[in-house]
Amino acid sequence: MSRWVRMALVLSLSAVVWVGGVVPIAADSNAHVVRPGETLSGIARHYGVTVTALVQANGLRDANFIWYGQRLLIPSQSAPPTSGQSSVYVVQRGDTLSGIAARHGVGLGALARANGITSTSWVYAGQRLTIPGAGSSPAPSTSAARTHRVQAGEHLSGIAARYGTTAAAIAHANGIANPSLIYVGQVLRIPAGGSSIPAAPSGSGLRFVVYISQQRCYLYRDGGLLYSWVCSTGRAGAATSTGTFYVQSKIRNAFGSRFNAWMPYWLGIYWAGSSENGIHGLPVNASSGVTVWANLVGTPITFGCIMLSNEAAITLYNLAYIGMPVIIRL
After folding, report:
1. How confident is the model at residue 329 (pLDDT cuts 50, 70, 90)?
2. Looking only at Cα atoms, what is the longest distance across the chain?
3. 154 φ, ψ to 5°?
């Protein structure tokens, strides 16, 4: 084949350049340019494809990390796995078990059980994981016994917020040693709410409250609890300031030059010297692309900021607005 023929063939291919290579656009694929506030799961629903299909089509390393202006290839429509059908996923560098579970729409506990994993930190690059099929389950009971049957994709904090209690209270009532390990089909006793949830702050609208001593954050709307999340605040020598603050900046993926790290779903709340402290998801090292502190949510580990899991950070980011009150207490 002559050099000119080869060049013509190359030029005839439509392609998008990504970190790690060139992904050709298939003839039956569409392209989507990410808009502010969008998530991969929302884009997948819009086009009737799965998150997994989008991840594979675009060579994404983390389903939680897309950015404004990013061009995504939309593969042909594909149906999600049927109930009971399993698949295999090869762990990539920087993956966490919780992120893999969220990406495939299965419970963290179900994923751990399917692979005989007893610790959420025991995954490694190249490991082959069985992804259990998403099964259906009955709606949660509303009887006086207050039980809830875990469904695919649910987390203890979300279940707790739904019933007006805390993840810790449900874990205690059901003898759960690790609140991250619940599984699809598990029946949970739901304790009476109210006694262990801090009172809602006064005022209407959204209120985000952080309790440093609990390493827990609460999001209220008009006095009603929306979400209860485990979070991390400042380490020794870099404490998170207490007081009432207001969201003053909102950046989808902020860069912290001091730490050479990207801070996803950034909500700035106050200035600490020349740098801004705020609320964010799991940081990503800008040089290596590795997610850091992935298994340390709930531990005082930051340099003054408030860190949430990416799932919680996405939810908060999408709801938050400039001027939203943030109340930080000991």
Report:
1. very high
2. 78
3. -80, 150
Contact 254, 288 (CB under 8 A): no
The tokens for 305 are 């900021």
Report the DSSP beta bridge partners of residue 72: 32
What is the residue type of 41? S
Q: Name the pLDDT band for 184 (thresholds 50, 70, 90).
A: confident
| Residue type at position 82 | T
Q: Is the CB of residue 108 less than 8 Å from the CB of residue 152?
A: no
Domains of the chain are 16-74 (3.10.350.10), 87-131 (3.10.350.10), 206-329 (2.40.440.10)
Q: What is the pLDDT of residues 250-278, one digit of tens each?
A: 999 999 888 899 999 999 999 888 889 99
Place of tokens 């990390």: 65
Please give the angle made by the CA atoms of 314, 202 and 221, to the nearest 5 degrees: 30
Phi and psi, residue 220, nearest 5°: -115, 150
